[in-house]
Amino acid sequence: MKLVKIIPRLFVFVFTFCFLIGCISDNYNNVPPLDREPVIEPDYSGVTIPTNIAPMNFNIVEDGELFIIRATSSNGSGLQLKSSDGRVRFPMRAWKKLLAVSQKGKIEIEILSEDNEGNIIKYEPFNMNVVSEPVDPYLWYRLLYPGYESWLDLKIVQRSTENFKEASIFENQLLENNCVNCHSSQQNNPEKFLLHVRGSMGGTYFVDGKEVTRRALQTEQMPASAVYPAWHPSGKYVAFSSNKTVQGFHMRPEKNIEVYDLFSSMVIYDTGKNEIAAIEESDTVKYMETFPSWSPGGDFLYYCRAIQVEEGFDYRDVKYNLIRKSFDQNSGVFGNAELVFNAQEINKSVSFPVISPDGQYLVLTLHDYGTFSIWHKEADLYLLNLKSGKVDRMDLVNSDETESYHSWSSNGKWLVFSSKRGNGLAARPYFAYFGSPENIGKPFVLPQKDPTLYERLEKTFNRPEFLTGKIRTGPRDFARTSKKEAVNASWAGEKTIIVPNELKKQTSAENEEKEIY
Amino acid sequence: MKKKRSIDILLDKILQAMKMAEKLPVRISLILILTTSIAYFYFYGEGLFFFQENKSLFIFSNEYIQKYLMKPGGLLEYSGNFLTQYYYSDLYGSLINIACLILVFLVFLKTDRRLLAGSFSILLILVPPFLLFFIQISYIHSIHNSLGYILLALYFYFSVVTTGRRSRFLCLALFPVFFYLTGSFALVYPLIYIVYSIVYKKGINRYLEPVFMIVTTGVTFIIFKEILFFQPADQLLRYPLPFIEVLRIPVLYNILFLYMILFPVFTHVSGLIKLKAKYTGFINLTTFISIFAITVIQLSKNYDHDLANLFKIGKSVFKQDWNSIIRQHETSPSINSNGQYYYNLALSEKGQLCNRLFYGRQDFGSKSLILPRDYAHLDRAIYYYYSIGLISEAHRLAYESMVKNGYRPENIKMLIKTELINGNYKIASGYINILKKTSHYKKWADKYEKFLNNPELIKADPELGEKIRSIPDTDFFIMSGDIDNIDMILKANPDNKKAFEYKIAWLLFKKDTKTVLNEVRKMKAMGYMNIPRHIEEAILLYMYFNHELPDLGDLIVSMDTELRFSRYITTYLNNSENNQILEREMKKIGEKTFWYYYQFK
Lengths: 517, 601
Known about the structure:
The structure holds 2 protein chains of 2 kinds.
Chain A lengths: L2 H27 L10 E2 L6 E2 L8 E3 L5 E8 L4 E6 L3 E2 L3 H10 L4 E9 L5 E3 L3 E5 L7 E7 L10 E6 L5 E6 L7 E7 L6 E7 L4 E6 L2 E6 L9 E6 L5 E13 L7 E14 L4 E4 L8 E8 L5 E8 L13 E8 L4 E2 L3 E4 L7 E7 L5 E7 L12 E6 L5 E3 L9 E6 L5 E6 L8 E9 L2 E2 L3 E2 L7 H4 L3 E8 L7 H8 L4 E2 L1 E2 L9 H12 L5
Parallel strand pairs in A: 2-9, 16-36, 20-37
Antiparallel strand pairs in A: 1-3, 3-6, 4-5, 4-7, 7-8, 7-9, 10-11, 10-35, 11-12, 13-14, 14-15, 15-16, 17-18, 18-19, 19-20, 21-22, 22-23, 23-24, 23-25, 26-27, 27-28, 28-29, 30-31, 31-32, 32-33, 32-34
Chain B lengths: L5 H12 L5 H22 L1 H8 L8 H8 L4 H11 L5 H25 L6 H16 L6 H19 L3 H9 L1 H8 L6 H12 L4 H24 L4 H6 L12 H22 L4 H26 L2 H15 L2 H10 L5 H13 L3 H4 L21 H11 L2 H15 L3 H13 L3 H12 L5 H8 L5 H6 L1 H9 L11 H11 L4 H14 L2 H8 L2 H4 L6 H14 L12 H17 L3 H12 L3 H7 L1
């Protein structure tokens, strides 16, 4: 057929199509709305989002052959999309424009659906509140199967919060499939961070700018390795808890795993001198201490503490309180322990205390007992006002499933936390706006390019933390460093860390048991 | 002049027909390959296909293919998984494997013809498909390895047929693409090409092209390792070949690689030898007979009947055809601990563990009751825990299998069942959706999909409902000691007959009749109306040695067992002087009894 005949016909077809669509669109305006919002996944209805977030793509879980989605800002500008499969993917540029004009306002999302018989349903619109405070541009987390003992394909990933770009920082396949855990940056700084590697290439890998060093922090005086880290704001020190951890697998369906410590203590590592020392406890009562966390000024070290367990203990009786010690940065001396929050009194246990950058608030995880909250369905986030000492449950943030690990953005306006509200097994990173204790936004899950990804992704997002910039170190940097010998830290303390006698027997018996995998 | 004998004339005719470069030898070669491979794969390959089909699950999804796109050789494995997913049909599996052998033969035929076909061509061409045949009948083999060899041979063929310097260099320059597609198979190509160049090329190309090849290979390897992909060097060197330890690849694979590398030398030498047609025919005939004879001898020698038996039993386990397993082991017993484990599992599922335990061969004692929870036994150990009601442990092991081995039909099915039993419908739904994206398991997924969010339907299901009822009422942590776990589950659920009979079976294997007796008094309360056969046997044996009347909790030993025991003792007393006769006579009268096991095992 000659081109001269095709072009006009094509023009007519396109014109007719557009005209019809226009007609259809006009028809939609006359449809009375339903008295409910559409069911969408993830649930982004009523959430509070930052001005720089990636497109909040979602999936419409309603019947329909065609969906029309209109996103309108308070000033009237907006965009319109169509979807035949229910997946709503906002174009990046259009989304960014919409966000820019919606600051301190709302984006209203209206959805219409049409079935194959031409029936149109118009759902009640829902809103996304847009605040002017941006969220940190990057998030990093460990991606792994939320499993029991085995691991394969472990990686630490950084993901832009402003778009969908994602890159590996660490890939364990380059380090003989060793385990990696407890990544931690110094005050969200992408240039200064550490992570632990367990296995043949084991050690604590410190990154400082372009330099990556491998250090062995466990000395003879320490019965267990350095585990949970907390960078001092100055970057000069890192507080660790040194934990002997075991896990038990439940046989009832209500619970999966219980991870608990047989003993744990606090140590402080001087990054410049490569020295590690115990943080002494003057109390005659023996404690297990874990989850260190510094105040923003570095003058207090907060941590969780429980009475040391003895042989034959019941793991359900172990309750951790929130403690702090003052710290003199010049002398490196700690003060006495002060009780900050007595969780035991209310028959609960505390984990993961983290203080806001302005030093006014502390978010902690509260659960029925023990230390490893990610496997506790009842674990929720609570807000402690450090001035008044009042502790409140963060109702809007919590769900019926686990809420656990959390961290603050550098501007103190956003919280990211792990939540298993999706399917009860794999944790996803949720963002919650924190304007004040009375002004906390409904949280939203990290948006994905494909909004149905979370339905299929079996892996869990572990220890999500914000970063103020992009990490430049990559998997090959760690691989190269792993080939070098680890630099051993030296013990600077006066005393060896004592392991309770009963537990020495228990732990050595466990060490003799045949390894399952 | 002497007249030729008629037999000589016939022989001459045959040998003339067998001469090289004619169609008949090629046809006969193909027939040889076809008959040998059909005979083996179709009639003996059932276990092989079953095993390989269950090693992986092919999913029609973007996420699934993404995993393979991210590494060199991934697409090769992906293709192999695609082909393997239909191995539930033995006919299909046979055809695929046969097709691979034919393809290899044809590629080598074409290559040989292109190079310098000689008197030994048929021999040279037949060696690769028969080597590949022996590779393919190994259980550790995956079809993607066959595809790797075919592509390797094809790439070499194309570089041989390409004329013109530019085209040749272009062909070599495509090496990075070839490396990406085939992974470590590609690394053999430069060696083949170097040998080919040295043997066949003349002038400067003899050295220039190998140098170009070496440089291209080196640069490609470095770029892949340092820039494009995250695989470490040893993975780039060996994936997707099977390996036993780091960089150790099974011998036959290496032999075939070496053969391919030296193939240009072989063809060159063969081409230089100019023989008369009838001698070429003689060589061809000898080749056919030798290869056929060697193949048959090797197959007869190396065919592992017990392994084939084990896979047949495994198939029945997956179908939950317990009767078939019991029948098979009692008529054609497995000498493998896993086979005996499956037999015991089948007995347990039919409620016959303590009635028929010694009807089948038992060589491993309690080790064939409960398998270790280590990587080697992971996929099998799951069924025991599922059987006795430790659903969370069955789930955990299935999950570990999924993490370590990837998706497999049985681990995903177990995850679905255990999640449904435990009431985790959202998670179960995720696994069901995985199976719905397969070709063979969609129906199974559809069947189980109806259980989602329907606890009443689950409770009413004969299998799932029974498992729900057997979950321990009180919680405990799984322990490393297997009997400790049984004790815990019996403490939580005293009526759990399956767990109880496993405990008794364990005690019988330990020959601990005293403890068996202590357990018997609980049986009436558990709902037993009769004492299972082997427990009766243990009771009588205990009474015989200890002259005690035990408390059987209102149950009695049957008259039939008492009579059998009386006969057993009589036979024993009559033959006790001569050990050789004793065992023979006791076997005749009581091989299927606990008494015989106690006395002779």
